[in-house]
Structure formats: C-alpha cells, structure tokens
Amino acid sequence: MKKTIISVLLAACCMSVSASQTIKVTVSNPMNISRSDVPVVIALFPYGEVRSAVVTQNGQEIPCQLDDLNQDETFDELCFLADLNKKEVKEYSVTFFETGEPRTYPARVYAEMVMANTKDKTLKKHQQNNFIEAITARGDAAYTYNLQHHHGVDFESELNGIRIYFDARQTLDLYGKYKKQLELKDTQFYTTAEQKAQGYGDDVLWVGQTFGLGAFRGWDGQKPTHVEPVKTRTQRIISYGPLRTIVELVDRGWKADASKTPVNMTLRYTQYAGHRDTDVDVNFNKDVSDYRFSTGIINVKGSEEFSDKKGLRACWGTDYPAADTTKWKRETVGLAVLVPQQNIVSEEPANKDNYAYVLKVDGNHMAYKVCYTSANETFGYHSSKEWFNYLTAWKREVENPVTVSIK
C-alpha cells in the first residue's frame, strides 16, 4: 500500500515538472535615459505548447500576454512590458504551463469592430453593439466604408486612438484625448456632448484622400494610388490586449502595378500600452522588390514640416477635423512617420495633400512606425518645437532598442 502511494506521489511530481518550465529573461537598457513600457516579446515555439504563463520580477508578478498570431488555437508569442532606469539591467522569470488559461490583467489597450445597427432604438445615440472580429468584402462591393459603425476597425492605448477606414484608402484617422485613459469602448469614436463635458476626446483630423497618418499605398510613378483593384479586402482583430492589440488588413489580389502580377498584402498594426506610436508591418505573398509603394502624412493646412532626411518626417498644423465645419472646432495635431532608410526611394516635395515617401520593399516584408499627438492632451505637446524635439528623442530610442537574452 505504501509503495503504491509513493508511486502515485512520484508520478504526480513528474507530471508537475513536465507541465511547466521556467526561463530567465535579461533585459538591458543601452541608453542613458529611463524608459517605460518597453515591449519584450518572446517566441514560444522552443517551449512546446504553452497554454498559460506567469512573469515575475524580483518575485513580484507583472502582467503578460499570450498571442495566437495565425489563429490556429496555439499561442505563438508572449509579451510583457519593462520599465528600466538608465543603463539598467533587469532579470525576469517566465514560467510556461502546458495547461490552464491565460491570466487576466487590467486592460491598457482596446480594439473594436462593430457593424452598423441603426434600427435598434434601445441604443443611445452613436452606440452600437453588433460586435464582430473580422469582415471580408469582395473587391466590387459598392461602399464598404459604411459597413462598419465607425467605418473600420479602431484601437487605442491610454495615449492615442486610431480607426482605419474599410475602403480602398485604408487611411488612419485620429482620435485626440485630454486625459490618459481608454475611451473608445464608451465613445465608439463619436463623442456625445455629455461625454465631451466629462473630458472625453474626439475626432481631431480630416483625412480625405490623403495618407492621413502613414497609410500604405501604391505609387504610379507620379503620385500615390489607393489599394485597388483587389479581389477581396479584409479587416480583422488578432489580439485584444491587455498589453498590446494587433489588427490586420488583408488585400487579396491587389493590382499594385498594372504591368505586373497581382499580390496579396497583409498590413499588421500593433499598438502597445503606454505608447503613442504604432508599429506597422507590411507583408506580401511574393517578392515585390521591383514594385514601388508609398506612405507619408497629410499636409495639414498651413502645417510646419520637419524632416531629418533620414526617414523621420513630421508636421504640426491646425485644421477642421470634418467636412462639416459648423459643429467642429479647429484642431491642432502633430503627425509623424518613421521609415527605415533602406526602404526609401525618394522623399517627395510636399504638395497640398501630403508629405510623401516613395518606397521599395526588399523581398516581401518591411516595417515602419507612425506617431501622433493632439494639442488637446493635458499630458502631451503643445507646440511644433516640443513635438519635433520629442520625435528626435523618440527616434533615438527606436534606433537603440533594449537587448533581450534568454537562458
């Protein structure tokens, strides 16, 4: 009987050991400045099938997130955020479990897709509740812009809020905040007078046919072109948070160059908590090295331009945020796009619409960043000088990432 009990205990111990594994992750800040909410991302394929995880630093649990990037019901990455003093090195303990569910932590980001539901009279003004996670439209769909309530997927951190139009423009439109908080669940990009009185933000940019904030477009040799024609266009949410939200736009059969074969393009936007900048990853299903593309920012009326001639281009300006100017005040914004130099074919002179870059893609992938501020922010920047100085410091941080080692 004792032998049986001992055998059962040994088996249980073995099961416990095999059901989890712990790694040590060292994160080093190479810069002589403090940095907060620095993303640390760990690929999970070396660790088998991970169903849950715990991250600790000095014995204290910190929030983490598991993401299934290809939607095959297996987590592919773990993410957590690091706060580091200047030149600081921190060690984190990460334990992976083969069973269980991901831990829950307070949300610091938000993402939403919702279909128009105007016939539901029980809803408050502008409120909609037909929530979806993905939508695909045929390329010959008449007017995809109005299929979703706020015209496309939206997402936010505490500092920003972005929606991406579900049409051939695929433009990023902007929401300006007064306070550091999540708001889009409440306002759905259409702030009521009551919410405004409570200190909520609102739409702060008119984009029209322009790049808005860093939309990725084609290039016909003289000007940007929209993402059309396509066989289908898709928007989908890959991850809802709590530390980062990931959304994707998929354009299948895009005739980006009429003289070449169509391509499939996936644009992935990643928004981290505590960040006003957004990561953009562009992926194609084939080598597109001989194609030309474009991105940039809208030339806000009367805006002041900044360029370091090395991939950072920005502006600061004031305009009405909607075509109907009778009910909107003029809004001041700072915009920026940061593109790797190796992807830049040319920096085009400013015109009435855009500050544009002509781009090349080496192989089938490139990445860049977009960033913005609203002068309404109590926590942000309120002059072109402040904004451009911030961007110069931001670029230095981007070019000097933390180093991560695992053992």
Give the spatial strand order of the biggest sheet. Answer: 10-17-18-19-20-27-24-23-22
Spans where pLDDT lies below 50 across 5 or more residues: 1-18
Task: Tell me, briefly, the overall form.
Answer: globular
Share in β-strands: 35-45%
Structure description:
It is a single chain. By secondary structure, this protein is mainly beta. 10% of the residues lie in helices and 41% in strands. It has four helices and 28 strands. The protein has a nine-stranded antiparallel beta sheet, with helices on one face. It has a six-stranded antiparallel beta sheet with strand order 9-8-11-12-13-14. It starts with a helix and ends with a strand. 38% of the residues are buried. The model is unreliable at 1-18 (pLDDT under 50).
Defining traits:
mainly beta, 28 strands, 407 residues, nine-stranded antiparallel beta sheet, 41% strand
Question: Quick gist of this model?
Answer:
With 407 residues, the protein is mainly beta.
Walk me through the topology.
Layout: H1 2-18, E1 20-28, E2 35-43, E3 52-57, E4 60-62, E5 64-67, E6 77-84, E7 89-97, E8 110-115, E9 130-132, E10 134-138, E11 154-156, E12 161-164, E13 172-176, H2 184-187, H3 193-197, E14 202-203, E15 217-219, E16 224-225, E17 232-239, E18 244-254, E19 263-272, E20 277-284, E21 293-298, E22 304-307, E23 312-319, E24 331-338, E25 344-347, E26 354-359, E27 365-374, H4 384-399, E28 403-406
Antiparallel strand pairs: 1-7, 1-28, 2-6, 3-4, 3-7, 5-6, 8-9, 8-11, 10-17, 11-12, 12-13, 13-14, 15-16, 15-21, 17-18, 18-19, 19-20, 20-27, 21-26, 22-23, 23-24, 24-27, 25-26
